[in-house]
Prior knowledge:
single chain, 3-stranded antiparallel beta sheet, 38% helix, globular
Amino acid sequence: MKKSKEENCINSAYIHVPFCLKKCAYCSFLSFEKKMVPKKYLYVLNMEINKKYNGEKLKTLYFGGGTPSILSISQVATILKNFNFEKDAEITFEVNPKTVDLAYLTELRMLGVNRLSIGVQSFNDEILSKIKRMHNSACALDTIKMAHKAGFDNISIDLMYGLPAQTMKIWAETLNVANNLPVQHISLYGLKIDSGSKFYNNMPKNLPTLDEQADMYELAIEKLTKFKQYEISNFAISEDFQGKHNLNYWNLGKYYAFGLGASGFSELGRYQNQQSLDVYCKLDFESEYEEFESPEEEKEVRLNEAVMLAFRLVSGVDKALINAKFNIDFDRKYAKPLKKYLETGHIKETKKGYAFTTKGFLLSNNILSEFI
Length: 372
Ligand code: SF4
């Protein structure tokens, strides 16, 4: 596997804030119920950043969680002071509508945060209550309005489909509202009930079937006319507003991970930080790295990742890029699944290689299992 100088440089960082006011019913993320971020956590997080960060100028920084918007403004300022940034760096902050007001968002913008990702999920109050979100539709709309007033012109919202009692009509209404909002980006999530979530032990009634979920996904592509899909689950009003932080993930770029349980990717491979809050707070910054038995195995794993991640993008696989990086002949190596899915219309040829069609995105996991 060939590595360029640029690849060895880390220009992205993720920060995990593992606290939320209240746990949502579908959530299995590493987060604890707390009203505010404990001082101790902030102290330890800063220590970790000081220990691991080499001072590169960051192109992207992403505050995720959990609920980063329960950090106080002075806590955000303390974290940001650790980093150097490129002039046009993208600094994204996940926001839970129930946790912010205009003053908070204005100060956040003044600190240099320039992109918000707002966890809206639905514009239907009954659905929001079923999934145990703390906000209602009016509160979400208010947050978007306040974000504008505060000076944000790069706003993303998350929407979920496949939710209990969510009909096609309810989903269409949410999509219609979203399509007419002054936001620049939308991320879609299909409900998956994982162990560790409240739903897992208490299965909700009236869940849409898998076929209905697929119809909901197709309806989103049809209804979000103001946006252009650029990834399996992501839409932006123009290329300028595509999420740069996530694009780095999908292009197999390296990134730092700071905070409890955060996952990163460095020269030494992919890693996950300590997952026990007690241990992490004792300043144990040991991360668990993936292990390979041979360089060949590592190369195979990276190739599989590169193919899977590139197929997530609407632009698809760039054959020349993958061939050069992994010293393979893409057409020959994947001749069988390519022939099969080009014939069925799940994959199409592009100028640079191959990409999934919408029909292909719906079956992406099954199709990709034949590539890896
Ligand atoms: S979905 Fe988000 S806001 Fe809800 S509990 Fe999980 S991390 Fe917290």
